[in-house]
Amino acid sequence: MTWTEVYNRVVFKIWGNSTVPAGTLAVLQGDEGIIGNVHRKIQQDYNYWFMQTSGTLTSASGTQSYSATGLSGTYKEIISMAWLVDGETFYSDPLSPVSTQDAEKLYIQSAATAKYPTLYELRDENIILYPIPTTSSLTLRVQYWQFLDRPPASFDATTDDLITYGADAVVNGAAAEMLEILKEWDSVKAMNGRAGEALELLKQEDRRRRQAPLYNIKYKDY
Asked: Which of 17, 63, 187, 193 is the most exposed place for a label (fewest CB within 10 A)?
């Protein structure tokens, strides 16, 4: 399903073959329209498999803070990170997260330094490394959850993974919000119920994909 097809499905669920009221397109479409906002809310609520990605940051000697917005895509949450060992093709052990209180206590006062920082703190969208890095141009590989892009301002024939796997959740959720504006309370309840069912199916698919490797166990014959 494409963004245009999502819009058409939402409109049909609400008005059927009747004439769509003026101004509807502006309310439903656009990167900040109802459909786009429902698309983002679904991702805020849960980290689905298609939101996992990776990117890199480059160290700078004496620089402790790095913006996660420098990663590709729209950063949501860190999963893990590790250094590409200088001159090698393998990575260090993953860095360990620390709380702001521990960071203040352990490192800020002493201003400790190291080639490969081993701890990190998250402040807003900034990654603070401890100890302070002493070497420039080292690669820090970051695994993280990202938000999929909002829809284009003018809906078109493009799509994304959330639309591909969870179109019903977006369609029913957006229809529910539009029906709430129209004060069609019985229909709001019905659409919210269908949106919830679609979200549960999407989460079941996510759990199945995460669990699948656990069953691929090779047993050795003795």
From this structure: 17
